[in-house]
Structures are given as structure tokens and as C-alpha cells.
């Protein structure tokens, strides 16, 4: 029977970002991202416009990730709920821990647009987190590595605190060091702790050379990992 333990999310729901839009003469806003996208799709917002997040600096229109996805063939739009469910179907059939870890890591790369990822998993009858999967331009020497108790990133995970950088501090620096061999350098890092009930069961770590990860990206990856490691029926 299914164990009475429910994965808990460490991400709190936040209101959507708001944007001001200007063509150099007229400024409108604030508007939510969805309305901004519809304006671009309808041609009402020309590509030379600039945008500013609420209380932020002005930037090009394509600096908004969702807008860049519309205007570049190399980027895909955010996954739909149907796509997310389809991606997570394979983990339901996996029993081997190594294959499970590799599948979670690969799916998380797709869901977040990360360049590199690591998955640390406690596994059955284990008390420590072990690096089970490494994907991307990062050293495979970390495979099988047991995370030490004084590891700054692990200590943050045990407190249920995700790590997001930039901005950088000691914990973010410690996470960036893991990805130091990435081709494009480390621009953004993220760590997502995965809990089953009150027990830390896994950690998913991500890196990419570009812009910072958004919490919506990490929420998708968190759901993938939780679905994989949650207790199964015997």
C-alpha cells in the first residue's frame, strides 16, 4: 500500500511579474507577462520596445524569457501541463535508482533550460545523499560522491531552503564550484531540495551560463523529482 507520506514543496506561490513597456515616447503598464506576450503576438508591441520590471531597470524586449521564446527558433516556450505529465511518465516505470536519477536529471534540463545538472539521491536504505547522475559539460568525477555533512549547499537543503544565484554568497559560491568546468562558465545556479514528508530525500542542482533561473522553472523541476522519488506501492 502507498505510504502515508506526501512530498512537500519548498516553493511558495508568488504573484506574477509586472512590466512597464515603452516605445520611447509612450509608456504603459504595469502589465502581467501574459498580456505582454499577447501584445507582441498581435503586433501591438514592436520589437524595438523596451520593458522594465516593477521597480527595475529598462531592458530590451527579448530580455523577457517568454518573449525570446516567441522570437527565436533556438528557444522553446515553457512546457504545458500536458507536456510535463508526458515527461514524467517514464519515472513511474523506473525501479533502478541509477536510471531513475538519470531520467530526473535529463527531464529537469529540458524543463528549466539548464546546461548542466546533478542529482543527489539518498535512495533505499541509505542515510547520506550520493551523487547519482551528472549531465552536461561538467566533470563526471563527481558521480558516486557522498555529500559531506558540513557541505554548505546540503546544510541549506536540510533547512528546506532552495539556493538561487545570482546574487552570490558563500552557499551559492559553493554550488557554483561544483559546475566550475562548464563550457560557458557559471552564470546562474540553483539547488532544489526534495522532501518526502519531513525527510530530505534528494537534491537537484542546476547551472547555466545565461540568465538566472525563475521560480516557475524550478517548480516544474521540483514536481518531476518529487514524482520520481515519492513512496510507491509495494
Amino acid at each position: 500500500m502507498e505510504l502515508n507520506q506526501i512530498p512537500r514543496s519548498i516553493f511558495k506561490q508568488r504573484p506574477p511579474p509586472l512590466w512597464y513597456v515603452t516605445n520611447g515616447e509612450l509608456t504603459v503598464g504595469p502589465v502581467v507577462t501574459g498580456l505582454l506576450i499577447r501584445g507582441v503576438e498581435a503586433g501591438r508591441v514592436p520589437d524595438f520596445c523596451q520593458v522594465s520590471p516593477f521597480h527595475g531597470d529598462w531592458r530590451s524586449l527579448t530580455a523577457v524569457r517568454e518573449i525570446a521564446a516567441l522570437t527565436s527558433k533556438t528557444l522553446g516556450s515553457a512546457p504545458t501541463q500536458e507536456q510535463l505529465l508526458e515527461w514524467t511518465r517514464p519515472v513511474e516505470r523506473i525501479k533502478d535508482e541509477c536510471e531513475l536519477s538519470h531520467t530526473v536529471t535529463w527531464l529537469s534540463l529540458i524543463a528549466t533550460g539548464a546546461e548542466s545538472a546533478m542529482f543527489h539521491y539518498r535512495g533505499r536504505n541509505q542515510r547520506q545523499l550520493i551523487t547519482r547522475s551528472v549531465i552536461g559539460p561538467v566533470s563526471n568525477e563527481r558521480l558516486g560522491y557522498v555529500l559531506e555533512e558540513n557541505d554548505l549547499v546540503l546544510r541549506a537543503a536540510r533547512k528546506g531552503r532552495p539556493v538561487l544565484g545570482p546574487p552570490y554568497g558563500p552557499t551559492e559560491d559553493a554550488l557554483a564550484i561544483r559546475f566550475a568546468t562548464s563550457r560557458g562558465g557559471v552564470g546562474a545556479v540553483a539547488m532544489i531540495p526534495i522532501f518526502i514528508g519531513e525527510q530530505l530525500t534528494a537534491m537537484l542542482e542546476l547551472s547555466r551560463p545565461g540568465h538566472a533561473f525563475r521560480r516557475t522553472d524550478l517548480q516544474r523541476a521540483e514536481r518531476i523529482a518529487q514524482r520520481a522519488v515519492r513512496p510507491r506501492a509495494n
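Residues 97-112 form the longest helix (16 residues). DSSP finds seven helices and ten strands in the chain.
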